[in-house]
Amino acid sequence: MTPFAVYAIRYAHREASLRGEHFYRGDVRAADPYPIDYFVWAAVSPEATVIVDAGFTPETAKRRGNRDYLQSPMDTLRQLGVEAGAVEHLVITHLHYDHVGHVRDFPAAQVLVQRSEYEFWTGPFAMRGEYGHLHEREDMVYLREQVASGRLRLIDGDFTVVPGVTLHPLGGHTQGLQVVRVTTAAGHVVVASDASHFYENIGSDRPYSIVDHLPSMYRAFDRIREMADAEELIIPGHDPAVLKRFPAAAPGLAGLAVRVA
Ligand SMILES: [Zn+2]
Q1: CB-hemisphere CA count at 13 Å for 35?
Q2: How far is the CA of 96 from the centre of ligand 1 (A)?
Q3: What is the Å distance from ligand 1's center to 1 Cα?
Q4: Centroid of ligand 1 to alpha carbon of 195 (angstroms)
Q5: Residue partners of 97: CB distance under 8 A and separation at least 6
Q6: What secondary structure letter does DSSP report for 93?
């Protein structure tokens, strides 16, 4: 098996964001600025391409406000030599609006979601209060159609997408949130997605503010550390520091994509 290259693709940014929003039960410096980035990830080898998450659309960015949509992940992937229309594997870590908006732009891909995650967002609590704001109803309508057609595969537990790319449901942030472990030349990378929004969540053992089950969030931190071969191979879901820690993926992609490993 040839090791994978892993890219973090930054498609949007929110400057007006404060520390107090990002930690369970707030933060002593709640009013300090804490900008956030939005990402899609790609694992690429000569044999397979696996895309992790599908961002939100420019329309959703406009409707929700305060979000700068930089460039569509599909356009950035093209600059990396990946045609979205030909991608065969699309992993969705969880069904919050900022991870599932562009599924229809990967029309040939089998979509992989944990069953418990899907059942939550199509179940009785999805429209209640806070949960209603965390997802887009039309995304769920589209996903239901993909389940019916067999394009979306509901999975239960650990799963091998292709040799070298495995999925691991850890929950905590949402019911069926899964992380992705990828074999690279630098060792095993873990795309933590929102199991750790920022380096600071896992680094200081401080869960994010949106919690499904608190003990699972702590357990997720432990499992991610066990699965990654080095601390720097853990990739958080929303940290602007990712762009600073790793080199641009290609000359024209500064600010849009970095190569993690
Ligand atoms: Zn997110």
Answers
A1: 12
A2: 6
A3: 31
A4: 9
A5: 56, 60, 64, 134, 135, 136, 139
A6: S
127-to-43, 95, 131, 132, 188 alpha-carbon distances in Å: 33, 13, 6, 4, 37
C-alpha to C-alpha distance for 199 and 68, rounded to whole angstroms: 22
pTM beyond cutoff 0.90: yes
Q: Separation of 145 CA from ligand 1 center, angstroms?
A: 23
- Alpha-carbon separation of residue 227 from 44, 180, 194 (angstroms): 19, 10, 16
Each residue's pLDDT tens digit, 186-233: 999 999 999 999 999 999 999 999 999 999 999 999 999 999 999 999
| Ligand 1 geometric centre to CA of 192 (Å) | 11
Q: What is the largest CA-CA distance in the chain?
A: 49
Token digits of residue 96 = 């919050």
**Strand runs labelled E in the chain:** 5-14, 36-44, 49-52, 68-69, 89-91, 110-114, 152-155, 159-162, 165-169, 178-184, 187-193, 234-236, 257-259
Residue type, 213: H
Q: How far is the CA of 193 from the centre of ligand 1 (A)?
A: 7
> Ligand 1 centroid vs 237 CA: distance in angstroms?
6
Smallest Cα–Cα separation from 170: which of 122, 124, 235, 217?
217
